Amino acid sequence: MSTAEQIAKKARIAGNSLKTISNENRSAILYKIHDALKADASTIEQANKLDLQLAQENHLSDSLLKRLDLFKGDKFDTMLQGIKDVADLEDPVGKIKMARELDEGLTLYQVTAPVGVLLVIFESRPEVIANITALCIKSGNSGILKGGKESVHTFREMAKIINETIEKYHEETGVPVGAVQLIETRQDVNDLLSQDEYIDLVVPRGSNALVRNIKDSTKIPVLGHADGICSIYVDKDADLEKAKRITLDAKTNYPAGCNAMETLLINPSLPSWCEVLENLTREGKVTLHVMNDVKEAYFKQLESLGRLDDVIKSSTVDVNESKDFDKEFLSLDCAVKFITSTQAAINHINLHSSRHTDAIITENKDDAELFLKGVDSSGVYWNASTRFADGFRYGFGTEVGISTSKIHARGPVGLDGLVIYQYQIRGNGQVASDYLGAGGNKAFVHKDLDLTKK
Amino acid sequence: MSTAEQIAKKARIAGNSLKTISNENRSAILYKIHDALKADASTIEQANKLDLQLAQENHLSDSLLKRLDLFKGDKFDTMLQGIKDVADLEDPVGKIKMARELDEGLTLYQVTAPVGVLLVIFESRPEVIANITALCIKSGNSGILKGGKESVHTFREMAKIINETIEKYHEETGVPVGAVQLIETRQDVNDLLSQDEYIDLVVPRGSNALVRNIKDSTKIPVLGHADGICSIYVDKDADLEKAKRITLDAKTNYPAGCNAMETLLINPSLPSWCEVLENLTREGKVTLHVMNDVKEAYFKQLESLGRLDDVIKSSTVDVNESKDFDKEFLSLDCAVKFITSTQAAINHINLHSSRHTDAIITENKDDAELFLKGVDSSGVYWNASTRFADGFRYGFGTEVGISTSKIHARGPVGLDGLVIYQYQIRGNGQVASDYLGAGGNKAFVHKDLDLTKK
């Protein structure tokens, strides 16, 4: 048996056990892990200093160093609080979603259950291992975790503490050893991606290249996002001030975010539409990658208003039409195109967007409803910034990731994305051959039971 | 652009349009399709006769001939009625599953939406094309359909009528041409399996080999079932009569069904346990593939009762331990093993079953609850036959298939498995930078709205 198979099989066995553990015990072990990490803070800090030192020696970027530093500001305390927050969430497992009487004394229940075994791959942020551990255990899934290599000493130390804690309290809580396993190399990940018999879901967090690479190398379902190519359509009936505020926020609040606007579709019938573009450049320092007809009309309007200056000229460049509307700039750049109807905007978005989040700005309810119904993205917004696409802003408490998949879970994914359901039947000796369709005469009752009554 | 890409792109465009069509119009076109198929029954019958004639010339089996014959008994009328039944189902699209006030005038909705484009592959049963067409259109998905080659003339004729009807009423209903496309060759299927940019879900119905082959050849998610290796555990506290009835039904009611029992786990502490085995053989003509210790104890008991005869002896064979507990017999055969605790039964099932449906027979509630919680299959039953795992019996109205996947949809899948959700935000110009976490001071309200109130 290969090492990868051993790890995967151990995770499967742990997962089978974990799914039977009560919410009280799943939460209790998270509190114990919280306490142990807190008590061992100084050991973790030493390991973290080693990672930082090696990163400095390797001349890694300042932003990476900042991410690596677990003890900067209140990051460590926030991480600890996060574990307790997840522990205190409502139990996602064992919720009855449907109950139906099939016949007297024969009842069908649809009950939430953990997915099983998760392989979670994440970036070099030391606090994420605590977060993912909490999410896995709370949702009754066993996890195989791989973090970015720059944090390996911190991860190793924290995984050691987490596993010792699980082992120490195993008798008390029932949470199995093997519920959380840390792996360290990219080769381990590659080997595990072939363990589709044991692993149920891969959750990659990080770059698009990582997600795409993983999707290409495994038969296991992948919950991850490809690109975040978000568009905003400013309709002819848009409120100009809303259009200016929303596009500026969507583009500039955090340009590196996957929910930032990358494409602006603007209807030239909107009076003073050029102010939307001007505002992006003057207020937001945005470089606009525009179509020829947009440039011509934009410059002409600004000239007639006496506002066509060098700032505008140098920030308005020709769009690469065959590429830029399918591009995630992740910078203060935006592709711009004229669109003359809501249906045309829907068509453009369904063809070019990455099915992440797209918005319409309009005061016309009919156009808004058409857009909300027609656009095939996980988030469809009316008069709000695409930047709201986020687990925290949606009130999910915690976020596993943002999914651009079309099945299972879309958009910001909370604990709900880590559970699925099982059908339970509770009977009293019933057999199918007594019923119609299988040789018998009895008819099914099929009466839904009221779940609000206990 | 390849033919496959053209087909897939056409389906995508049709799907984008179909998702905006009202339930009234989606149902209306199904009634029109019903009427057209009914009116053209004689043309369809001619095509069907051609398929039957070719099948006879090719010496295909009687059971296949029976499946091919669309006009045998009331099969054609049942098919027509099925279209109307699906049309009359509750709309699966646009259901609000969650509504949350994020802030005053900023509301988040989780709304069901079609998955998008389905590639459905099914067996040589002419009536299935009508069924799948109805399911696709009702759920707002466009479908690319491929049926078994033996029915190709019937499929072709029916697809022609369906497409002419959609075209004829396109202006009236809005249902787009291209909503349903028939493809005819295995090569077309292979080519389409690489169109993961346009196709969202593959639904293969048919043999396990087909499903496995498709899973191995595509990056598109597959909703299908691998094997149906269902087990029944007869506990020491089982009611003997229930155990006899349920195992007999589960094994013999329809041995070729994926929900038939393939493995019997029996606790030798149950008094008269040997009657469960004897009943399977004498009443059900079942050949038992038993472990050595089972055989020894079974024969000894029957001998002492004076019932060890040639029928029993010839129907009790040695199990191939390394293979038979992972095998779908699909015949009057069953693997048998002693299991001495519910936990051991859970462990065996989680290791060997195909996560389809497994049952415990016991009068002990604690053991039943442990089993229901511990077994990781889509169906977990207490004192009922595994044969109940079926969309009709669950009351789903119609069944897309039975899924042994761990994500998106498990077990019998109704229309619900063909929809997913989108998040809508309806705002009034709100931007993220006004709120905490993105640079502002406003806090989110996160107040769930009551969905039972309209």
UniProtKB/TrEMBL annotation, chains A, B:
Catalytic activity entry: L-glutamate 5-semialdehyde + phosphate + NADP(+) = L-glutamyl 5-phosphate + NADPH + H(+)
Which residue intervals define the domain Aldehyde dehydrogenase in the entry? 3-270
A GO MF annotation of the entry reads: NADP binding
Q: Which cellular component, as a GO term, is one annotated location?
A: cytosol
One of its Pfam families is: Aldedh
List GO BP terms, alphabetically. Answer: L-proline biosynthetic process
Which EC numbers does the record give? Answer: 1.2.1.41
What's in the keyword line of the UniProt record? Amino-acid biosynthesis, NADP, Oxidoreductase, Proline biosynthesis
Which biological pathway?
A: Amino-acid biosynthesis; L-proline biosynthesis; L-glutamate 5-semialdehyde from L-glutamate: step 2/2
Q: What class of enzyme is it?
A: oxidoreductase
Under the heading NCBIfam families, the entry gives:
PRK00197.1, proA
Q: Give the similarity note.
A: Belongs to the gamma-glutamyl phosphate reductase family.
Q: What does this protein do?
A: Catalyzes the NADPH dependent reduction of L-gamma-glutamyl 5-phosphate into L-glutamate 5-semialdehyde and phosphate. The product spontaneously undergoes cyclization to form 1-pyrroline-5-carboxylate.
PANTHER family (alphabetical)? DELTA-1-PYRROLINE-5-CARBOXYLATE SYNTHASE, GLUTAMATE SEMIALDEHYDE DEHYDROGENASE
Q: What is this protein called?
A: glutamate-5-semialdehyde dehydrogenase
Native organism: Naumovozyma dairenensis (strain ATCC 10597 / BCRC 20456 / CBS 421 / NBRC 0211 / NRRL Y-12639)
The primary gene name is: NDAI0A08630
